Amino acid sequence: MDNEFDVIVLGTGLSESITAAALAKAGLKVAHIDPNGYYGADEATLTLDELVQWADAHTTSDLAQDHDFRSVRYHVEYRSPDILPHSKQYSISLSPSVIPSVGPFISSLISSGVARYGSFKLLGPVSMYHNGQFKGVPQNKESIFQDRTIPLIEKRRLIALPDDVPFDQFLHQSFSLSEDIAQAVMFTLAYCNFPGEATLMALRRVRSCLRSTGRYGLSPFLVGYYGGSGEIAQGFCRAAAVNGSVYILGRRVSSIVVNASSSLGSHDQGTVHRYTIELDGIPDPLRSSCLLSSSSHVPDYLRSQVGSTPSDTNTACTSRHQILAVARCIAIVDGAMTPPCLNRSDDTSFGEAQSDSFLVVFPPGSVDHGSMTSSVHVLTAGAGTMSAPLDKTIVHLSMPLLQECGRSSMDLLQPYLTTMVAGSALLFQVFYMQYFPPTPDKPLLDVMPDFYVLPILQPDIPQSVDHAAQHAESAFWHIMQAANPNFSSDEVKGFWVTGLATINDEDDLEW
């Protein structure tokens, strides 16, 4: 029957979409459901008019009544009253990120064939605001040696960069780096959110950045067209649909019924469907042997009975810190913004200097009236990635918070926005808080191996997409084993099992 599946996936976030595409490619019958009318969930890409509707739906915070919330919550504190013309020409990400050129996510993009559904370009220069001015940051060894602002002895110490001490102490004590150089390493190579982050986590991010440099060009990062991660999530959903997956958007899950356990995955003898899901407005329920869900869609009565991705230090955003919230701002600026003053070396290309997609880092204490404890990331997108009309630029600002500070997102981010767009006209702004649920002290009980919950992606501009791919791979093997007990991962090569489709290993990204 059309309403019977091997697995039902709830939520179209990036992790869920990657997993659905892999399961469908391996030959499982997949139904993919999202109560939103768009793909991407918390990583969605919206047009400007959709963003306004989204903002208006999140103007009231319900956190005061729900201290034990389990999904990401939003509170929009301000938006501009007027909508700009040509609103559908904007592609605005709710969770902006960049793509490391080497790592699990880029491997999934290529191996799955999803790279063919999108276009990508190199991220422009990375710069840091320090001592009242913007400074370019070298992203590879060659650039370090060519940078005339770094003393020779500091260059040799930087090249030596590959315990549990804070990363800032590690840089000072082990390498005797000056404060300026240590800040550049901490916040624009390790992309630390806070001072004092654990050394092991920071070194892993440094390694990822350095390994990614040179694969496609000087920058270690790529950016996706049409808004980035939300568009890519939709690309994975498209790949799943090509392999037979069924998609239902804009329908709320009204109930999940768990039937008695039985022999799952016995395809040749007739599968007994363990899960029955009813959707608003659809008369016939959906049934499946396995259930895969984002944390946002798990009912409380099932939460203590499901498997989840185990805690892993490789995918933790910060080892020492539990992020409470992220203050965010999305602004649209009149004019095509280019990277701020970068102390350009002679080999800086004209293309780099004119890029409208670049990253700026504000370390703690770098701006008057700014935060003394959190860094701020600014990621821009414009017509160069088909994310905005000509002569318009989208500016994303984000500040992670460890605790409630009693200030609004607008109060927190306005000094950085003013510094960033000085001299440019602001056409549209929205300020909001993104709240994250507390991390469980211990993993959820694995008493229902056919029901799997993907963890919430933590805010991490350079690493979140790699975390999504790692979460998806763990979920894939788990569901494959539950759907077919005779399945063995030793029988296949890699995450992307060739089922109904074939892979051309020579395929690469479209530029």
Describe, in plain words, how this protein is organized in 3D.
This protein has 511 residues and is an alpha/beta fold. Helices cover 26% and strands 22% of the residues. It has helices spanning 14-25, 48-56, 104-112, 141-146, 152-159, 167-175, 179-188, 199-212, 229-242, 300-303, 350-353, 409-420, 464-483; strands at residues 4-10, 30-34, 45-46, 73-79, 92-93, 99-100, 120-122, 126-130, 133-136, 221-224, 246-249, 253-258, 275-279, 286-294, 307-308, 325-334, 359-362, 376-382, 392-401, 426-435, 451-454. Strands 1, 2, 11, 12, 13, 14, 15 and 21 form an 8-stranded mixed β-sheet that branches. Helix 1 crosses helix 13 (464-483). The protein is globular, with a radius of gyration of 23 Å. The protein starts with a strand and ends in a 28-residue tail after the last helix.
In short:
With 511 residues, the protein is an alpha/beta fold. The chain has helices at residues 14-25, 48-56, 104-112, 141-146, 152-159, 167-175, 179-188, 199-212, 229-242, 300-303, 350-353, 409-420, 464-483; strands at residues 4-10, 30-34, 45-46, 73-79, 92-93, 99-100, 120-122, 126-130, 133-136, 221-224, 246-249, 253-258, 275-279, 286-294, 307-308, 325-334, 359-362, 376-382, 392-401, 426-435, 451-454.
